[in-house]
Target: Putative dehydrogenase
Amino acid sequence: MKGAVIGCGFFAQNQLEAWRDIDGVEIVALCDQDAERLNASGSAFGVERRYTDAAKMFDEGGFDFVDIATTVGSHRALVEIAAKAGVHIICQKPFAENMADARAMVNAAQTVGKTLMLHENFRWQSPIQAALNIVKSGTIGEPFFGRVSFRSGYDVFSGQPYLAEGKRFIIEDLGIHILDISRAFFGDATQIAATTRRINPNINGEDVATMMLTHENGATSVVDCSYATQRTPETFPQSLLEIDGTLGTLRLDAGYQLTVQTEGETQTDVSPPLLPWAQKPWHNIQESVLTIQQHFVDCINSGRQPETSGADNLKTLALVEAAYMAAEQGCTVSLADV
Ligand code: NAD
Ligand code: 89Y
Model:
């Protein structure tokens, strides 16, 4: 399978590393508007075909899929051009700047019968997968309450300066993952309430968000996110879990400690592996990049839809939109209205 990557910035380095680890995949072309970044990645990963114009790269073709690792403003145009070129597509989160763009992107891929997967990797982190497997096995019974929590004081702005500039920050950038984890455990939501705060005076968007979701199956989940939490141990980038089920409880605590209580209690260390190209504390995210990209390849090869397909991710993006509406209006928002 031959692929092309658009966007050779901060996070794409992980995606390029992961592609190198996947059997049967070769990245044959790279694109970035910034020639310096393009050439740095081209040299580091030994990719000769390099483009500063995505349209030109698609015109010349010669690849089966494209991995779009740019920031959100370019996603719709790039997905549409990729669909026109008839290739399978991975697109980074956040999917789009609004629901209309995201729906158009799903339609574009469906029209040409190509796979569109969102690079929604947090649910693929191995500690989260370990917890999901236990909940799906029925060990703690029917889950009726959950808390998915991401609280940190880690400086994400030095690596990703654009995060300080947007009117929106934590829900759109990070909360989107945590909302998606909640969907993975409890299924789709019917309504959401939310509050937001900006604590850091040097950024434009909100850096604290607390959201409460009602799920179709009757479960309630609290999704809380903060980049203004100075604490020890610093848990970046861990998503912590507390899940109450009819037969017991599950907790994923700081340091990747997974505790399951039913009649007895078991505690397991579910720390993610440190891949040869990974660096702590990012290794948790980096491993999930490899896992989700392998999932994309497996889905293409077997004709399945990826778990976080474009169509699926419309529901995660709708939660983001609804959370901003709920926080702004001080009310509960029904997902049917988004
Ligand atoms: P970045 O700004 O460092 O890199 C983006 C690159 O895309 C830049 O080099 C830019 O020149 C290039 N680019 C933009 N538009 C282009 C276009 N039309 N054609 C060609 N090149 C174009 O950004 P980043 O920090 O690498 O983030 C990229 C995306 O990855 C963001 O959407 C971000 O939210 C996401 N991200 C995801 C995770 C995750 O765990 N899934 C983690 C970090 C970032
Ligand atoms: O951009 C974000 C993401 O997707 O994961 C963590 C991050 O890099 C900073 O919040």
In short: The longest strand covers residues 143-151. The pocket of nicotinamide-adenine-dinucleotide (ligand 1) is lined by residues 6-12, 31-34, 37, 54, 69-72, 74, 78, 92-93, 119, 121, 160, 162, 173, 285 (CB under 6 Å).
